[in-house]
Write a structure and sequence with these properties.
With about 160 residues, this protein is an all-alpha fold. Helices cover about 85% and strands about 0% of the residues.
Length: about 160
């Protein structure tokens, strides 16, 4: 990675190496100015690259913070998901338990309804039997009463004749 403070290496050529035997001073000056301009352009380019690098490092730090925040958020979401799944499991278990209780109570209710029907039927039969016995007893009592009345009538008739 490039350092923020990286600088270009100084030119390997010196004034003496530029000057070749037989070159005039104008050519040397032009060559030096050319090299100075080139160095100046490279320094500007280095400054621009350093600014870009600084900006990229800033963006990288921002993105790293964002990744860290997202990671934390993901961890929290996973914890909440696990809690929700556990609660859903507990609720499902409770639902199943309540469903079995409902079925048990329905079964008990049906049995109680059958018992009520049986008791009612038995009560009605018993009542009918009792009424039948009472009717037959009344009939028997009436028959006895009528027979006694006839006897009394016969006796009265005998007494009336005498």
């Amino acid at each position: 990675m490039f350092s923020l403070f990286a600088r270009a290496a100084p030119p390997a050529t010196s004034v003496t190496s530029i000057a070749a035997p037989g070159m005039d001073s104008k050519a040397i000056t032009a060559k030096l100015e050319d090299q100075a301009k080139h160095i100046s352009e490279q320094e500007v380019m280095i400054k621009t690259l350093n600014k870009q690098l600084s900006h990229c490092e800033s963006d990288l730090a921002t993105h790293m913070d964002l990744v860290s925040t997202l990671g934390t958020s993901l961890d929290d979401s996973e914890k909440n998901f696990r809690k929700a799944r556990m609660q859903a499991t507990e609720l499902a278990s409770e639902r199943d338990s309540l469903s079995s209780q409902i079925e048990s109570l329905r079964s008990e209710l049906q049995e109680a309804c059958r018992e009520v029907v049986t008791v009612r039927k038995s009560t009605v039969e018993e009542k009918q039997s009792l009424e039948s016995r009472q009717r037959s007893e009344k009939e028997r009592n009436r028959a006895q009463l009528e027979s006694r009345m006839e006897e009394l009538h016969k006796r009265k008739s005998k007494f009336a004749c005498l």
